[in-house]
Amino acid sequence: MAIIKTGKVVIVLAGRHAGKKAVVVKTFDDGSGDKKFSHCLVAGLARNPRKVTRAMNKAKVEKRAKAMKPFIKYINVRHIFPTRYVVDLDLKKAVDEADLVDAERKVDVKKDLKKLFTDRYLNQKDVTSEKKAQGSTYFFQKLRF
Questions:
Q1: What is the side-by-side order of every strand in the sheet holding 8-12?
Q2: What whole-number distance in Å separates Cα of residue 144 and Cα of residue 90?
């Protein structure tokens, strides 16, 4: 699967997080261990940040950004839909695969992810390239369909 690379924004098609956006952290093309099919590790938003308007002050925007709730999950490649957008979040450092086995450490990973996503959401104007800025904007918007 040459289309699904690290940093690609995908839409989850199956399971509890169906219809939610996620970013690919790592891909396993030939499968590994107990998962003998191609799959990838994705980190996404189970709950998007609340709507923000221009009239809102900085404190209110920050409060509305707190509504974000991340998830992290291994998903079969057939159950995700790649979009044309790419995000330049460095998720590999934030997510250690060994931490995903233990439930308590997974909670800590989610907290780190929330911090990372919130920082990016509040500082979207600092993104270097136009393409990555578009991806970031798309990722944090609620999926409309």
A1: 69-76, 39-47, 21-28, 8-12, 80-86
A2: 26
Q: Is 90 exposed, middle or buried, given 0-12, 13-18 or 19+ CB atoms closer than 10 A?
A: exposed
Please give the single-letter amino acid code of residue 143. Answer: L
Instruction: Note the pTM of the prediction, 2 decimals.
Output: 0.89
> In this structure, how many other beta carbons lie within 10 angstroms of the beta carbon of residue 51?
10
AA identity, residue 41: L
Domains and CATH numbers, the chain: 8-140 (2.30.30.770)
pLDDT digit string (tens) for 116-126? Answer: 999 999 988 77
Structure tokens, 141: 């918007």
Nearest to 65 by CA among 76, 80, 50, 82: 50
Q: Which two tokens stand for residue 85?
A: 């957008």
Give the burial class of 3: count Cβ atoms within 10 A of its Cβ; 0-12 exposed, 13-18 middle, 19 or more buried: exposed
Residue 9: other Cβ atoms inside 10 A = 21
- Residue whose token pair is 């998962």: 35
